[in-house]
Design goal:
- The protein has 329 residues and is α/β, with parallel strands linked by helices.
- Helices cover 43% and strands 18% of the residues.
- The protein has twelve helices and eleven strands.
- α2 links the parallel β1 and β2.
- It is globular.
- The protein starts with a helix and ends in a 5-residue tail after the last helix.
Length: 329
Amino acid sequence: MPFKSRRSLLAALCLSALVPPLAHAQSQPAAWPAKPIRIVVAYPAGGVSDTVARALADKLAVQLGTPVVIENKAGASGSIGVDAVAKAAPDGYTLGFAAISPLALNPHLGKSPFDPQKDIAPVVSVMYSPVLLLGTPAGKAKDFRDLLATARAKPGEIRWTTSGPASLGHIMLEQIMASAQVQITHVPYKGGGQQMNDALGGQFEVLSTNAGPAVQQHVKAGKLKPLAVGAPARLASLPDVPTLAELGLPAANMSSLFGIYAPAQTPAAVLERLNAELNKALALPDIRSKLDATDNVPTGGTAAEFARQIALESENNARIIRSAGIKAN
């Protein structure tokens, strides 16, 4: 081969050796985050969930060095907001904040527009919101055991309200009736405001509701009597009120677990970074005090742990819904 030809071949080989790394470099995603991040809150503005999400967004913005904005998409028991996350680009710039019920409860009632296992990536659990079982002015029970005794003696006489059919409160009530072998009349409501007004007016004997400032106010004023709580442990604000597990009803000892989600197929490195940064934010004293002040308990942990919690609750809910024949509206 002439010298000139050999030199041309060598040059071509050298050029071809440079092409793959260049192409590889061009295919790499830009450094994350490179633009604002959106957190879709699956509930209306102004509530405890919205307040917590905004506090976390402020911390993330500082930690990540990019704006973090909140968008409220309420409706369908949280499913509308989570669906918006499921359908967003999996690039780490859209996250969701919601209870796990859109993933672990709603799908078993035939009202989920997305596949919880295929469309959503759990990032981190944020808090659990205890469920308070409260006696109203119409109730005569001095404690929860007395309530069950009355229910056994007078089947169906006690009226128990929840936020609606197939809600977490309804699931808990079905578990209580099955485990304690009592009959209680379920009165479903569509709005928390009307439910609370009627509770204060003594229109029924018991209501189940998530913890929050308004509930605390009525309990402190003596207008509502705490009988039991659905939570992993007793609440610091109500140290004398037992959990349902302590009362011998562990299957009914449920609370609302909230967390952060991302679209499925979001890069693993981004999910890991988000998990680490959110855990860091949840450990900050002002975030923890904000949650403690409303009886909501900060959690945190790994994404895998959060996914296992969702799977376990989904399995339990499916069993309860089948056995009780619960139907959604």
